[in-house]
Amino acid sequence: MMEYAARIRFAVVAIFIFAGAGIRAAPPPPELDHPQAPPPKDAKTNEAPGKDEITYVPPDLGAPAVRVSGGTRGSAGVGLTIDVLAPGPTGLTTQEQPTLYWYISRSARADIRLSIVADASNKTILDVKVPGAATAGIHAFALMGTPIRLALNTDYQWSVTAVRSRDPSEDTVATGMIRRVQHPIADRNPNLRMTTNTAAAYARNGLWYDALQALSEAIRARPNDLGLQYQRSALLQQVGLTVPAMWDRSALR
Length: 253
Prior knowledge:
Blueprint: H1 2-11, E1 70-72, E2 80-84, E3 91-93, E4 99-104, E5 111-118, E6 123-130, E7 137-142, E8 155-163, E9 172-180, H2 184-188, H3 196-204, H4 208-221, H5 226-238, H6 242-250
Helix pairs in contact: 3-4, 4-5, 5-6
């Protein structure tokens, strides 16, 4: 784990020093949200009729942007990029064990690692290799099924790293922040409901991770519903995740 922490420090200055013993849990296979296809060259696509955009209202946390995307330059100018699907500042969830999502621009020969670090203590609470995640597209990792539970009102930095060799300079790292909070919407609905209506309610109340998970689960349940794909694309675009949004819009073609 110390070797992996050293890689993270080398690759992204924004990532804090990992300390403490992390918990290694056997992760479930990541889920690819829709079949692989190259993203379009531009963001101009036909919008799905009859589907309103879900509007994300960021909470007023007074925090700066902390999301960091990772990228490397490859042969013929085609590199590997990773984006965690998180807002620029800290994103909120009401769940102890939310699902985390990220985007990989192309398939690569790399090990994908996911880590979570408690921001205040710099303690690594999760450090796992995610099997089968080095393929192009949007991936999901559910904390449900692991021992990890997010504490209330605690900030966590989570990162996704593509480890391509023993040389840390070749690692590709993306990071974001998450905080679990109490909210009346969760008190009324203790179990996260995976519908577009509840996704819209979570987004209006600044609960980014819950909104994204509800919408993504709806897509998983109805993979042929292009309107859902459009809604998630629009949601990602609202927080500046342009390339992952273009990927989702490629399903509309």
